[in-house]
Amino acid sequence: MRDVPLHPEPAIVLATALLQHDEDLAHAQRLAVRGANGYLNGDMRLCGDYSGALTSMMVPWVFEIAAKIAIARDDFAMAFAFARGSRALQTRTSARADETEAGIWERLERPSRAELAWTRALNAGSHTARQKLAELYERSHDSMEGFDTHLAKLIAKTDTSSRPRAAAFAGEDLDGRPLSLEKLRGRVVVLNFWGLGCAPCKAEIPDLSRMVASYRGKQVEFIAFATDEAGKLRTYLADHPFAYRVVAQAGGIAERYGVHAWPTHVIIDKRGRVAATFVGGGKNADQRFRPVIDRLLDE
Asked: Which of 124, 157, 190 is the last residue of a domain?
């Protein structure tokens, strides 16, 4: 950190290491605050992030780290401030801030508040939220009887008005068929941002294609925006079929959706709002998406 005093990343890396080893958490929190301020002040622009894209992606995660350190120190006021700051700074819908907030309420032994936070996380695509909600229900009822009905009521009461409007797009797929988000209103839209140079992107294609087949006849559209040229995509897809509608050279659309890592998956509700975003993939990635798609189909 002495060599690059303005670079916030070393402070965050050290803070994360201290948290993982449960060592000197007071120092870890000071480092996290220092790193968070560095990102917010735009110090990364002096360290190569000229467009600010990396900063936009990192800031919510840095706030989550700071919140987890505060939780470990039982500094719940600070933890709430960082968790809610993380949500406010998100450039895409993510469950992580709600998961962090739910953890705070659990530590404070406020199950009803924790339940609300876990429900928001569930709607945003959390793969752990359903189990956490089940545990809360069983503790309060000494039984799992009636849980599914209770969960359905929780989901129905969740406020979805804060979902951001999805960025518009229009073009044509590799088969020459036109597509546009506007004309897909009334359908759940599942987007996959990928590229031929991304091994996890290619590894998940068989599972994603099976997912498409399982939703055939339902109001769901699957579109894959690739970074590559059409010719290269056709050559690859001739031997590796992909059931999504594939769009070539879609870097501009990826930029509009704030995509900085591949693969990224975005799920859009019937009203054209972003309901969930998942970064990363690989085999069985579709298991994270199916619960979100099913809930959106029921809205």
From this structure: 157
The domain spanning residue 112 has which CATH number? 1.25.40.10
Residue with tokens 């990343």: 9
Which residue shows structure tokens 């999504």? 244
Residue 225 is part of which domain span?
170-298
Tell me the CA end-to-end span of the chain in Å, nearest whole number: 50
DSSP secondary structure string for all residues of 5-55: TT-SHHHHHHHHHHHHTT--HHHHHHHHHHHHHHHHTTGGGGGT-TTSHHH
Tokens 């503790």 correspond to what residue?
A: 139
- SS3 per-residue string spanning 167-232: CCCEEECCCCCEEECHHHCCCEEEEEEECCCCHHHHHCHHHHHHHHHHCCCCCEEEEEEECCCHHH
pTM, full prediction: 0.78
How do 220-226 and 245-247 pair as beta strands? parallel
- Report if residue 92 sits inside a domain: yes
Please say whether the beta carbons of 244 and 227 come within 8 A: no
Q: How many Cβ atoms sit within 10 Å of the Cβ of residue 109?
A: 8
Residues 37 and 105 grouped into a single domain: yes
- Say how many domains are in the chain: 2
Q: State the DSSP H helix or E strand holding residue 209, giving kind and residue range, or none if neither.
A: helix 205-214
Tens digits of residue pLDDT in 153-194: 998 888 888 888 999 999 999 999 999 999 999 999 999 999
